[in-house]
Structure formats: C-alpha cells, structure tokens
Amino acid sequence: MGRTWTMSRWLLAGASVTALSLATPAAAQDATSEVEEVVVTGFRGSLQQALNLKRDSSVAADTILAEDIGKFPDLNLSESIQRISGVALARDAGEGRQITVRGLSPQFTRVRINGMEALTTAGGTDASGGTNRGRSFDFNIFASDLFSSITVQKTASAQTEEGSLGATVDLRTARPLDYDGFKFAASAQASYNGLSEKTSPRMAAMISNTWADNTLGALLSVAYNKRTLLDVGTSTVRWARGTNVAPGFDALPNAAGLPTTANPAAAAVNAAYHPRIPRYDRYDQEQDRLGATLALQWKPSDRTELTFDLLYAKLDGNREEQFLEVPSFSVNGACTAANVATSCGIADTNVTASTIDANNTLVAGTFNDVDLRVEDRYDELTTTFTQYSLDFTHEFSDNLRVHALAGHSKSDHDNPVQTTIIWDQFNVDGYRYDYSQGRAPLLTYGNANLADASAWTLTQVRMRPQTASNVYDTVQAEVEFEPNEIFKFSAGLNWKSYEFESTELRRSNGTSANQEPVIPAGVAAIALSSYAKTVNLPTSGLGAPAGTVTSWVSPSYFAAATAFNLNDPTAFGGAWRLGREPALGNNRGVSEEDKGGFVQVDWSTEIAGMPFRGNIGVRHVQTQQSASGYTFLSGAAVPITVDRTYEDTLPSLNAVLEPMENLLIRFGAAQTMSRPDLGNLTPGATVSVSGTTRSVTAGNPNLDPFRADAYDLSFEWYYQPEALISVALFKKKVDSFVQTLSTGIPFTGNPFGIPDSVATAACGSTPGCSPAALWQFSTPRNTPGGDLEGYEISFQQPLSFLPGPLANLGLLANYTYVKSSIDYLNAAGAVVATNDITGLSRKAYNATLYYEDEKVSARVSASYRSRYLTRVPGAEAGTTFDGTNETFNVDASFTYTWNDNLKFTVEGVNLTDEFQDQFNDQTDRLSFYHHTGREFLVGVRYTY
C-alpha cells in the first residue's frame, strides 16, 4: 500500500516558503548536494574545501576530498568515510568493507557513483556474512586512488532519489576539466604485514589533459594493489545448553552398553552453556585489486557540458580456511550400537570434570568420547564491477537549465570454487577446553593423534560454488528555473531498472538429497597421507595460553583436488556432479522497476537581515517488484515468481538560517523509505543442512518497505578560517520495520506444511540430522518500528595560535551518540525483547591530529566504535542477543615533499592490531576472535 502525507503536516513549511517573497533578496546559493569541481593541494587544503562545501549546502552533508591529484587520505574508501561524524565502519580481512550511518546498518545506505546508484558485492568468511546477497555496499572492491571526492548526505531532499533511511553516499571519480592542461601523477608503495610477514605492491597512476582552451578533455587513471595476509584466531560458532542439543552429554542408552547417566553432575552440565564447536582457525588470503577510470568531457560553451565516465574494478582473491575443532558438542540425536563407534555425537560424550561460572557457562571441562575434526576449505573469489554513464548539462539562459543522466552498472561476484575437505577422528578421551583465561582458550586433545593422517577418516567433501549479480540501468532528467534571485524551481523524472540474481550449486544426484557426507568407495580407499599437510598456527599477539596446540595434520585441498579429480563431474561415478537441487534457497532473484518524479523549490533570501535558504519538495515513486525462488509442492521443489507494486510519496524540507555571521542553524524533515533486503523477498521456503546447522527459511515477497519520518536540527559555528564547532540532533521514527521471526522446533509437523521427506533428503547421512531433531524455522514479517535518536558533535581547529612550528598542527574530532528502541517478536508475534536496532553502536568517535608545512605532512588518526548487536534474540535458544564488541583503530601517515614533483611517504595501518571480536549473549561468550596484524607502507609519489 502506498504511503500518503497530508498538507497540514507541512503547512508551517509551506507558509514559510510563501513568506519568502516578502523578504529581502540575497545572493542565491546552490542547494544541491553535488560536489563542486575543485582542485585542492595538501591535507589541510582539502579540509578547508570540504568545510566550504558543507557550509554552502542546503542539506546536511559532509565531504572528503582528495588531498592531491590521485591521492585520497586513506588506502580504503570506507576508512576515509568513517572520519565523518555519524559513520561507523565494519571490517573484513583487516580492511573496511561496509558502513553504518547514524546507527542504521549498511542495507539502509544508498551509494551513487558519478550520480548513478550502484551496488557492489563481494564474498567473505562465514563470520563476516559470506557472500553478500543483500543491498549493502562493499567498499573494499575499489582502490581509493580512483576517486576525487566522497559526500555523505544525511538529510533527504526531493531531488535525491529514494531508498535510504541512513544516508546517501556520493562517490565521484576525477574528470579532466577539474584541472588546467596536462596533469600526470604516479605512486608506488611496498606494503608489509606484520602477521603474515609478507610484502606486497601497491601502484597508481593518472594522466589527464585538456585541449581547445580547456573545452575538451580526457583523463585515465589506473590503480593496482596486492595483499597477502593471515587471519588467525579462535571461534565457537555459538554457545548452547546441553538440553538444546538433545539428549545432551552423558546420555548413552543401555542398548549401547553404558548406563543412561554416567556422570552424576550431568544435569547441571547439560543446563549450562557450552561452546558448540570450540576451535582454532587459520585463514590464508591473497587479494589482487585492479581499478581504472576513463573520463571524457566536452564543454563547447560556458552553458553546455557533456561528460562520459567509465569505471572498472576487479577484486580477485583466494582464501584457505583451516580448522582444528570439536563438532560433536553440537551433534544431537540418539546413539545406537551401530554409530556409537563413529558419529554418535554429544550423547556419547562423558564429562569427567567441569567448571560452571556464575553466568551458567561451562567455562572449562574435560571430556571422553569426543569426536575431533580438521577442515581445509578453499575459496576462489572474483568481483568485477563496470559502470558507464553519460552526463549532460545545458543552460538555455541565465535562469533555465536542464540536466540529464543515463548509465549502466553491473557487479558480478563469482565464487567458482568453495570446496571443503573434512577429516574426523572419533571417540577421543581426555579432551579439555578452558575459556577462563581470556578470549583465547586453552584447548588440549587428550589421546588424539594430531600428527598422523592415518588416525583420521574422510567424512565429507563439500562443493558450493556460487554467484551474485547486481545490475542497474538508470535514465533521469530534470529542469531548473530561476525566475528571480530568491527562488529556483526544479522538477524531474527518473527511471531505474534493478536486477539481482543469486546462484549456488552443491553436489547433487538430481534430487534435494544432501550428498556432502557421501564418500565414494574409490575415494575412501585413497591413502589420507597422499593428500595431507601440516598446519601451523601463529600465536603471536593472540594471547593463547601456554600448552595451546600450534600444529596439526590436515587434508590439503590442492592435493585432494588432484587425487579426487574434483574438476571432473563424471569421476567416481558422477560423485562431483553439481546441481542446484540441494541449495535451492540461494538460487533466487529480484527485479525492480522504479518510476519516479519530483518537484522542489529552493530559496535564498534574508529574514530580518538574517540569510535564510533551503528547499522544500516532494518525490513520488512507484516500485514494480518481481521476486523468484523455489517452494515445495507435495514434497517436490517447484519454481515460483511473485509480482507486486507499491508506491511512496515522500515530502522533504531543508532550511538553513544564519542568525549571526558564521553561525548556521539547519533544520531538516522528511519522510523516507528503504526497500526490504533482498534475501527477505524470496518466495517459498527453502530447507538447508550445513554440518550441524539445520534451517528452514521462508521468504515474504509481499513485505512493505522500511518507512520512517526523519528530523534533523544542527548548529554550525565557523568561528575562524578552517575551523568548525557543530552539534547535530537527529531523530527517526521508524513506522514500518522488517524482522525475521525464528523458532526452534522439530521439522515434523512444521507450520510451513513441508513433509518430512524433504528434511530426510536434506539430511542425507549427516550425523544427528532427522525430521525429529530441532530445526530453525525463520520467516520475515513487517512489524512495528520504533524511535532512533542521537546527536553528533564535530570539532575542527588549526592550531595556528601555537608558537613556531607547532602552529602547523591541527585537530579534527567528532563524537556520535545514538540509541533506539525496537520491540523484537517471536514467531507467535509476542514481544520477547526490546533493544537497539541491529548494527547500531551507541558511541563512536574519530580524532585526527595533523601537521603540515611546506615539506612535511603527517597525521595520526584514531577511530572508536562501541559494541553493536547483530541478532536479537540470539541465534541460540535462551540467549538475549549476539553482537560484535568495541573496536579502536589507529592509523598514521607521513609525507615528505622533496620538491614540487616528488614526495616520499610512510604509512601505518591498524597499528593497534585490532581484533574482530564477536560474542553471544549478554554474558559476552566468545563467538569469533580474529586478527590480521599491522600493516606498514613506504612509497614515492610523482606529479607533473
């Protein structure tokens, strides 16, 4: 159903605009969020230009500019964006990947490149979300050298396309008419990672020229860098009570030869929370990032300009994940005489010693009959992004202007290899874990043989290649008319087509039956030693206790791929044939066609001698949505497509008053919308088994968008050149929200009406998996929203009042506080928790101390983000929430100018060697704890 608004709600704003015709005219100012074409030199110069843009804008916006030709302040785009107040960063593999703005998670932020909406997605580890199949923009695809400016627009205007609850981020690449005549810049750096102890190259170059009195220009830029890193740590997946993994510890039945309860303390142990899969992890990663831009401009007169932009980016990578773990703590189901010697699971595990803390956590224990596992997972990942656009501006007269934009963008993520080789070793005695000594546990393995491949058994071969594609086509046009010095009238139309498609294949026999535990006899007969290797775990900086095992034998993917002929789908009777049948949930798509238009009035005048400017307008958009996936009919999977159309009318107001010189008061109000995340729109239900995780997910293609009323009030004091003190208050009343409601129940008799035969096929021969086991059933629904509110404080000050060289110092700092209140529901619709919206860090701050003179430019930057929630309630029954703990990152850079053309650089990134620390429950039980080490770069820059 479309959203409506009443004129009475905006009566005050409309009356104010009408009254402007009676006020004293003032110089008109551009109220759009477009970044002016500016050339700046040095970090300090870029700050001043950014302040000018912020001050002149009628919307609340912050801009970061390149400090030199082809030189952005940070190595990664998102690392630069996080310096803006209200922006918090999420990292993956040691670099920024996604941003949160004012407490709203990445899916609520739209990104435009050269004025056109785009979406780039990459693949990550399971802990970082795996393959991105949502609306969140992955900034790590791009090298920052390709861009000249970033603008974060925090308040909405009718002229800006819909789709954001958080912010609209504008990325702009360099263009030739930004510069006069010929320009050339090149840089080369060597990057050293302290954990991997590897050195990698980083290079960039840009060449630009103009002809015919600066009316014709061309610019080409290229950037390349390589990263080789280690990502090392420990994880548990999550913590569970023994009673949640029925029948729990010490529950071997008499039929298997042991009493029902072997441990008198079994009841207390099973009531406490234990780690599902305690383990140490080592990830070896390599990345090659290549990017290029081409810009052609023609400006035949001062009134006409035509620009063609082309952007290409490619992120190639591979990652090898190696684990030594205990899976049996999360394998449920009854034991029998047939499986007690192999894969019985938790029921066969005897607890011989235990320590339960005040939070009912089994923080330490010693166990017999434990099953161990070693995994080697190898991924090849490529994201290729291409965008081209044509931008046209023409002024028919001094007061009539048209602007048009047409373009195409495509992001293709391909994960052609995602293969895991798994060995198990059964019924180990004397296994012990101890989580009482810090985040890194002590794990010892009793009588297990960790060095001999023959002590293990090949139990699974997983093959899961997958893709994600996002395509945008955009055409838009607008006209501006300025009848006098006070008013400017704008109107425009836009058409946008968006296509998303995701695929995943798994080992298949043509049905949905799980084939991953099926090992052909010919493969089982291959000696494990012929495809074995030794894994070494670097513990430097990890805080691992003395006695931690730091090496183990493991399968080698590369040797196994050759020994098993994994690339031949006909080998071993077709054992490696791939099909979509076992992975229907990730074979889906969404298409959207958006038709919109807007009208907007900008004004610039004076009231009682006070400069007063702003805009008021309304945007209307119709969204035609088509979602496709699979559902089950009489136990058989069938494709399904669901179409729907909805409309939104979105008024907005921005006003800026200058009651005294250099003091601005801003006010903004708007109705905003953000479309549901892609995964929630999939029609039908999908059934999935991955190891010990059993899930059933039903989508909802009839979800309404997120909708909110947004209010902003800020005070900005530009008390001296290059200086600013500002306070911004903001509030969002989220009216329409989307939650995924989950419950853990047996598959048999499930509310989706799916027959048990589907669960049986999905289980295959996976231990502990059956229709009678507990499955996680999830479905998204529209739910009531809640309020989100907070404030930002920003401070920028050159310390020119200090004596001598200290006068070249300067300081930037900002602090953001935000909180929200969302009611979280269970599957029955009852409120089970009230908490912050997921992804919201209540506190965040950034600070940069810089020094700059004619020869030296140096700065140190610190960034803090408090903990944030990722799931409410937690994924495990009985837990309040899951989340990620606080982070504090420090970066530094030093540049020495040898002459007008040559500079030498030294940089340090992640100097705190910050850990990615994820937790379960309010008791802060460890889920994932990894670090990637510090990075140091030395290089040279040449400009001409």
Molecular structure report:
The chain is mainly β and 944 residues long. Helices cover 6% and strands 54% of the residues. The chain is built from 8 helices and 48 strands. It has a 22-stranded antiparallel β-barrel. The chain has a 5-stranded mixed sheet with strand order 2-7-8-5-6. β9 (183-193) and β10 form a beta hairpin. The radius of gyration is 29 Å and the shape is globular. The two termini are 58 Å apart. The relative contact order is 0.13.
Strand-residue proportion: over 45%
Q: What is the number of helical segments per DSSP (H or I, 4+ residues)?
A: 8
Mean pLDDT: 91
Helical content class: under 10%
Q: What are the segments in which pLDDT stays under 50 over at least 5 consecutive residues?
A: 1-40
Task: Report the major sheet.
Answer: 22 strands, antiparallel, barrel
C-alpha-based Rg, rounded = 29 Å
Termini gap: 58 Å
- Structural class based on helices, strands and sheet pairing: mainly beta
User: Shape, please?
Assistant: globular
Give a count of the beta strands, DSSP E runs of length 2 or more.
48
